[in-house]
Design brief:
- This protein is of the alpha+beta class.
- 53% of the residues lie in helices and 18% in strands.
- The protein has helices at 2-6, 9-20, 28-35, 39-52, 75-82, 97-107, 137-151, 162-170, 174-181, 193-216, and strands spanning 26-27, 55-60, 63-68, 108-115, 129-135, 157-160, 185-189.
- The chain has a four-stranded mixed beta sheet. It has a three-stranded antiparallel beta sheet with strand order 1-3-2.
- Helix 6 packs antiparallel against helix 7 and helix 9 packs across helix 10.
- The protein is globular.
Length: 217
C-alpha cells in the first residue's frame, strides 16, 4: 500500500532510511547497500527527492552525500510516516534504526546513545559514538564490532556511567558540551540529558556576559 501511494519500492526504502536517520549523511553506494536496491534506481529516486526538496546533497572528499532536509515543509508528517510509523518486516532490507535499538538493549541499561563524527560528518567531538549508562564492556565491544562490520568503517567510541556524565555536566566539561553542540543522531536520551547540557551551557554564557558588562560599566 505504501509503495503504491509513494510511487516505488525504492522511494519508500529511501524515505525510511532518511527519516529514520535524521542528521546522518549517506553516499550513493552506501545507500544502495543499506536498502538493497539497484544503483540506477537509487540514483533516479534520489534525484526525484532532491527536486522535491525532501533531501539535500553536498560534496565532500569527492563523494556526494545525501541527507534528509529537516527544513522541508512536510518534514514532520513524513517523519511520522517513515521515521518509525511504517510497519516493517524482518527482512535485511529494513532500515537500521530498529536493529540498532535492539542491539543497544543488549549492551546494558542505556541512558544516552548518540551518533556523531563520521555518521554526521561533524568531527568536533573526535568520536563517532557515545554511550552513557550501566554498560557491559564485552557486550559494548560486540556491538561496536558488529557496527563496524555493517558500516564498513572503524568506529571511535566512548562510554561512561550516568553519574560520570552528570559530574562532567556539572563542571561544564568540554567534551560533554561538544557532544551536546555537535551535529548528531540521538538514538536514546531517557532523561533529556543533551537538553540539560545545552541549557546549562547557555546559562553559563549569559552569566559570563553579564559579569563582563558589569566590569565594563
Amino acid at each position: 500500500m505504501i509503495e503504491q501511494l509513494f510511487g516505488s519500492k525504492t522511494r519508500v526504502k529511501l524515505l525510511q532510511l532518511f527519516y529514520s536517520n535524521p542528521n546522518r549523511s549517506f553516499y550513493v553506494r552506501e545507500i544502495t547497500r543499506k536498502i538493497d536496491e539497484q544503483i540506477n534506481s537509487v540514483r533516479r529516486e534520489l534525484s526525484n527527492l532532491l527536486a522535491i526538496g525532501i533531501i539535500t546533497s553536498d560534496n565532500n572528499n569527492n563523494k556526494l552525500y545525501y541527507e534528509v532536509n529537516q527544513a522541508f515543509e512536510y518534514y514532520s508528517p513524513l517523519k511520522q510516516i517513515f521515521g518509525g510509523g511504517v510497519k516493517k518486516t524482518k527482512k535485511a532490507t529494513d532500515t537500521d534504526e530498529a536493529e540498532q535499538e535492539l542491539d543497544l538493549r543488549s549492551v546494558g541499561h542505556i541512558d544516552l546513545a548518540v551518533y556523531t563524527g563520521q555518521f554526521t560528518r561533524d568531527e568536533a567531538t573526535g568520536i563517532d559514538l557515545l554511550i552513557v549508562g550501566e554498560i557491559n564492556p564485552n557486550a559494548l565491544q560486540k556491538y561496536v564490532d558488529d557496527l563496524e562490520s555493517k558500516e564498513n568503517k572503524s568506529i571511535r567510541y566512548t562510554s561512561m556511567s550516568l553519574s560520570d556524565f552528570r559530574y562532567r555536566q556539572q563542571i561544564r566539561d568540554r567534551f560533554v558540551t561538544a557532544v551536546a553542540q555537535s551535529k548528531k543522531q540521538v538514538l536514546v536520551d531517557l532523561h533529556n540529558l543533551l537538553a540539560e547540557v545545552a541549557e546549562s551551557t547557555e546559562a553559563s554564557e549569559e552569566t559570563k556576559e553579564e559579569t563582563k558588562e558589569e566590569k565594563e560599566a
